[in-house]
Amino acid sequence: MRATPSGAQQRVLDAIDRLEPAYRRLLQTLVRIPSQAREEETEAQALVSEHMREIGLTVDSFDVDVQALKHLAAFNPSPRNYAGRPCVVGRRPGTGGGRSLLLNAHIDTVPVETPDAWAHPPFGGAIEDGRLYGRGACDDKAGIVECLLVAHAIKDAAVELEGDLTVASVIEDETTGNGSLACVERGYTADGVIIVDGTWPERFIVSHMGHVSFRIRLTGIAGHATSGGPNPIAAVGMVEEALRKFVERRNAEHAQHWGAKENPIFINLGMVHGGVWPGSVPGECVLEGQYGFPPPGSCESAKQELRDLLATVAHRSDWPLRAAPSIEFVGLETPPEVGDPANPIAQLLSATVRRLRGATLQESVIVGHCDLRHYTRARERPTTAACLYGPGGGRNVHGADEYFELAHLRLVAGNLAGVALEWCGVTRDR
Ligand SMILES: [Zn+2]
């Protein structure tokens, strides 16, 4: 059953409808500004920060401070330079007495690998059949745009919240999670947190698998093409096979499933580099990838499994190299996150979706990862009232022709605004 929204809620929903065309354009503009997670986020974050000021938010734009974070277990070392790639936090202080709400979305995107494989240019922001195409359109610039739309609509509707509303546009969700960590360490936590990233309008997420990123180094002896090696590239197939069989074994041993996903344990080899010249035997070949594992595994146990596996590979009689492969763990690392789907913010979200849309919200668990952990495990004011919701539908995330279903912009923003009003409380409802 769909209930009639209160006066304040109706005004906010009306404001979202009024503002929506401008926010479609904002999403298009943001997609046209590349912010690939390779030190490219500056311009996009400048636009977000300027927009936050225009809609009356108090803005704090700050760089990730490695010195202040590096001793924390949740910090993931990064080879990148953080200067001039800020996190941007906008706040609308409440009138007092209500619960605070924080909306988080990430501005960084994964890189475009093969632009020619895109029918719509990755930074063109083309709109066709209600879909907006581009790298980051769905993951997660639509999330940024929805958070801003919620804050703007509440202001335009002249609704005063009792609790503070905070919107965080973070960097490095895709690579390290250090952007959200920096926000949390700077004090930007709240009684309730919604990460607007990675779900369709009828789903929410409180749990994800654990991930460790690794770099495997195969060492040969550099020399002329006719020197006979040992050639590290000759060992790549063996390592790949060992990793693949390990994953098959792990999934089979435990009859694993993670939510609806069968055989969820995975190892993805995402990068391989070795050699400089066709006529030379390379001195080294490096494989980089990620290992995803469900609970009760920990990052430490996952790393040990990989170390043990590689030690056995080098014992094969046909191992072509003199040295065993070495492995180091760099980049993204997160333990599995297991949240309570009945936590207060997830419950309120479900009730809001039922009330406003007459729809039932389903819990979904993800094989991927997100920044939820930084809020549920914050050193100061952690909250279990946290979930992922929005920005809505789309496809080809991380692939060619990523797109976002534009119809979900106002739908999800309306649901988020409904939660904000109920969670934070409304001071005066005219
Ligand atoms: Zn994302």
Q: Can you tell me the CATH topology of the largest domain?
A: Aminopeptidase
Class by helix and strand content?
alpha+beta
The level of helicity is: 25-40%
The molecules bound to the chains, other than polymers, are: zinc ion
Shape: elongated
CATH architecture of the largest domain: 3-Layer(aba) Sandwich
Question: What can you tell me about this protein's structure?
Answer:
The chain has 430 residues and is α+β, with helices and mostly antiparallel strands. The chain folds into two domains: 7-207 and 337-424, Zn peptidases (Aminopeptidase, 3-Layer(aba) Sandwich), CATH 3.40.630.10; 210-334, 2-Layer Sandwich (Alpha-Beta Plaits), CATH 3.30.70. It is 33% helix and 21% strand. It is built from ten helices and 20 strands. It has helices spanning 7-32, 42-54, 66-69, 137-156, 178-185, 236-253, 299-313, 344-357, 372-376, 407-424; strands spanning 58-62, 87-92, 101-106, 127-128, 131-133, 165-170, 192-195, 203-205, 210-219, 223-224, 257-258, 261-262, 266-274, 280-281, 284-293, 326-334, 362-363, 386-389, 394-395, 403-405. Strands 1-2-6-3-7-18-8-17 form an eight-stranded mixed sheet, sandwiched between helices. α4 crosses α10 (407-424). The two termini are 25 Å apart. The relative contact order is 0.20. The mean pLDDT is 95. The structure holds zinc ion (ZN). Residues 106, 139-140, 173, 197-198 line the site of zinc ion.
